[in-house]
Design brief:
Pfam families: EAL. By secondary structure, the chain is an alpha/beta fold. Helix content is 40%, strand content 21%. It contains 18 helices and 16 strands.
């Protein structure tokens, strides 16, 4: 049986915090969601149970994992909260068992270990298809726990179960390609030294006639190789058309388009990029770090031919792969984009800050642009500039927007401030 967590009530009476029943009128108004807590420290579990109770959730406490899985299978709780320090129990192995059980609730980690270990555990859970809410440091603060639960709607009412399998068919995707339903939004990129709009990244969206705007993560993985190549052709054609319209109005941001390793090896890519006129803005082809390193000779050949055609290459998500610096040296790269996982923690973690600073120094020594991706808090901009980052992008600065909105942003003297003002976010320390 799970161990009850108790505290002293009036007159010293012990109150069971796990199974305490809410008042009848409270039960009649709502159904309280269930959380199961796996934590070796009973004091931490007691505090957490109180916090969950205030937030409208019932909870059950376990100090060992042996009975946890049976309870999860039987009760299907909305939330599993587990500490990473479980003594003889292996918490990461438990995540794998949750994945094998096809658990469909949310998982929140309690971190009392090194940040690297916590991030590894989060990535393991995500790879297994678990809905990871991240981690909270011990002792937990009520406001952080509330924000964690609110971010995914975990609360008093049990959510309707949703199917996580793809909901689109190949025929629907084929129709979307033919009907022109795949449209482009553009993520602004800003120069740190001036705050001006310096570039845009073309991002595909599905303008579904019934479901509205759908993000790429919900349909790109379903594309066949042939459909993916056709989509790249469509994106390059539309993006270059939009960039030409901006140029005629005097707005000339660098245009970045994501391509796959298969695209890079296709002779069609060179033909598509030769549609540009000399007056068009610079075109940058972004490829992920891992893909950029796959085929040394062929990849270098295609990259060189693109460079001779006046194009630039950018290595996206730099830092998350185990790339060879010699390979990086051999490719004609004009830009490195530091992965958002490091930028997000640049002010909180010394190790993330060290990685950002090292990549920025590498880029500066190689004479190429260094873009910090995933900027969500503008307060980190002075630090990024001091490290040597030259450009920034992220939701804290500007979300992806339709092509006409780029014109308005590009004509503003301090575009980085104008974009942030539109989002309602504070300016922070902006150069």
């Amino acid at each position: 049986m799970p161990r009850p967590v108790c505290r002293n009530g009036p007159g010293g009476r012990l109150i069971n915090l796990i199974d305490r029943k809410p008042p009848m009128n409270e039960l009649s108004n709502r159904t309280r969601a269930m959380a199961v807590v796996l934590e070796a420290d009973p004091d931490v579990a007691a505090v957490l149970s109180l916090q969950l109770d205030v937030l409208g959730m019932e909870s059950r406490y376990y100090s060992h994992s042996s009975l946890l899985l049976n309870d999860i299978l039987r009760r299907q709780p909305q939330l599993v909260i587990m500490g990473l320090e479980l003594g003889a129990d292996d918490s990461i192995a438990l995540l794998r068992r949750l994945g094998e059980c096809h658990y469909r609730g949310s998982v929140l980690l309690l971190s009392g270990v090194e940040a690297k270990i916590t991030r590894i555990a989060e990535r393991v859970g995500e790879t297994l298809g678990l809905n990871m809410l991240g981690s909270l440091d011990k002792p937990m603060r009520m406001v952080e726990l509330r924000q964690c639960l609110d971010s995914v709607g975990v609360g008093r009412e049990r959510p309707i179960e949703t199917c996580r399998e793809p909901v689109f068919t190949c025929d629907e995707l084929e129709h979307a390609l033919h009907a022109g339903e795949l449209t482009l939004h553009y993520q602004p990129q800003f120069e740190l030294s001036s705050g001006r709009l310096s570039g845009v990244e073309a991002l595909v969206r599905w303008s579904h006639p019934e479901l509205g705007l759908i993000g790429p993560g919900n349909f790109l993985p379903l594309l066949s190789l042939e459909q993916s190549k056709r989509l790249t052709s469509h994106v390059l054609t539309q993006a270059q058309h939009d960039a030409a319209q901006w140029a005629r109005a005097g707005v000339t941001p660098t245009l970045s388009v994501n391509v796959t390793a298969d695209d890079m090896m296709s002779p069609d890519l060179l033909a598509l990029t030769r549609m540009r006129s000399p007056s068009d803005p610079s075109l940058v082809l972004e490829i992920t770090e891992t893909a950029a390193m796959d085929d040394e000779l062929l990849g270098s050949e295609v990259a060189a031919r693109l460079c001779l055609s006046g194009l630039e290459m950018s290595v996206d998500d730099f830092g998350i792969g185990f790339s060879s610096l010699a390979r990086l040296q051999s490719l004609p790269i004009s830009e490195l984009k530091i992965d958002r996982s490091f930028v997000r923690l640049v002010e909180q973690e010394a190790q993330s800050a060290a990685i950002v600073e090292a990549v920025a120094l590498l880029g500066r020594r190689m004479g190429i642009r260094v873009v910090a991706e995933g900027v969500e808090d503008m307060a980190c901009l002075p630090l990024l500039e001091r490290f040597g980052c030259t450009h920034v992008q992220g939701f804290g600065l500007a979300r992806p927007m339709p092509a006409p909105d780029i014109l308005a942003l590009g004509t503003h003297h301090e575009a980085i401030r104008a974009s942030s003002a539109d989002t309602g976010l504070p300016f922070g320390s902006v150069p």
